[in-house]
Amino acid sequence: MADRRLPSLPKVLVLLPTYNERENLPVIAERLLAYGDLRVLVIDDGSPDGTGALADEIAATSQGRLSVLHRSGKRGLGRSYLDGMRAALATDAEFVFQMDADLSHDPKYVPDLVAAAARHDLVIGSRYLQGVSVVNWPLRRLMLSTFANWYVRTITGMRVRDCTAGFRCWSRDALARLPLDRIVSDGYSFQVETLFLALEAGSTVGEVPIIFVERRVGASKISGNVIRESFVTPWRMALRRAFGRRQSPQPPRYNSPAS
Prior knowledge:
The protein is an alpha/beta fold. The chain has one domain: Spore Coat Polysaccharide Biosynthesis Protein SpsA, Chain A (Alpha-Beta Complex), CATH 3.90.550. It has helices spanning about 25-35, 50-60, 75-90, 110-115, 140-155, 170-175, 190-200, 225-240; strands at about 10-20, 40-45, 65-70, 95-100, 120-125, 135, 170, 205-210, 210-215. Strand 1 (about 10-20), helix 1 and strand 2 form a beta-alpha-beta unit.
């Protein structure tokens, strides 16, 4: 695959949480590592299908550009990202990406988000900036997602079109301002809480249009608990704002394997 370098932006680290993504991981890792100098941190939640072991194999041949963080204890998307973000802040990364490992977020958009990061502290790969840009979702899932974004915007007052998006590029400074030790959301509402806290901390947020493609293999991680948490989190954020519970970001306290 051709080497597509990111000119003058060598310090990009992609956080890639995994749970049973053995079939998808080699594909997305190859596509990401095709960008010269970009690094990847796989954060595996003890996948029973052997994703973590496969990630170690890929890391061994990546010349140090792909590292693996094996998590134990409490699992979940939010917990994985928090550990990954602490790890990222322990490196020299200037831009930190959040991406799904199931190929729903196409690596071809990475340069677009990096370019927009020159103007914004946080850039979101948006499914709803230009109408609806989602492929292969059933109508029920699409209605749930569009309603969720309307619901979040209505309750919190945030003006971002895709508040629940998981494809994001953080500047190091914006990420460092997040109070990581005080974030409690775990499922997809983690995206809502971190976006809210970024805006509260004064970060500027931009959106770049992407086309989101539903996973081709593997199973979705959405559960009833995730949906219930998603309904509660916007109200918690709104109450936080109403009662002025502004909190100072905590310094990172983590030693990362992705150095």
